[in-house]
TrEMBL record:
Protein family according to the UniProt entry: Belongs to the UPF0301 (AlgH) family.
SUPFAM superfamilies (alphabetical): VC0467-like
Gene Ontology cellular component list: cytosol
InterPro entries the record matches: AlgH-like (IPR003774)
PANTHER family according to UniProt: UNCHARACTERIZED PROTEIN YQGE, UPF0301 PROTEIN YQGE
Protein name: UPF0301 protein H5J25_12150
Amino acid sequence: MENARFLTGQFLLAMPGIGDPRFDRAAIAICAHDANGAVGIGLGDVIEGLGLHTLLEQFKIDPGKAPDAPVHLGGPVEPRRGFVIHSTDWGGQDTIDVAGRWSLSGTVDVLRAIAAGTGPARFVVALGYAGWGGGQLDEELTRHGWFNVPGDLGLLYDTPAAERWERGFAEAGIDSRLLASGAGNA
């Protein structure tokens, strides 16, 4: 069983006032988290002017049956590297299972399958990722900055990027409009 202190398969939501503008209103799907570090894909913002069809054409793949879905800003690390978070009904040579909730693929075979209509039933495409070294995320979680929520598939697949952050808090029973941007003193 996954160690309860690790957040694989959950969402990490940035608290107001996190102090890093790259993570303002971030909603990050944590795809791997263990003693060696963590990797997450940001799903709270899309890359303006870049849709899946354009991305596929850059790889010389005919968009075929693929919808022209938005491409998300996955994070500040390797911003030209692509990732697809997808349903567990498809797998390629590099696909990893994320706590049985979803899968993550990072090679072009998943894009070819989506274009051919033989890929995963549900998917989200992103460029870049967020990464933390061993113990770094664990330490950040002890300070004001991040809030984790369950890896709800509705939040992942059915919620537009601009609404994920707010909906993540709402599903935890928190009205994001009432969150303060700093830690208090008692």
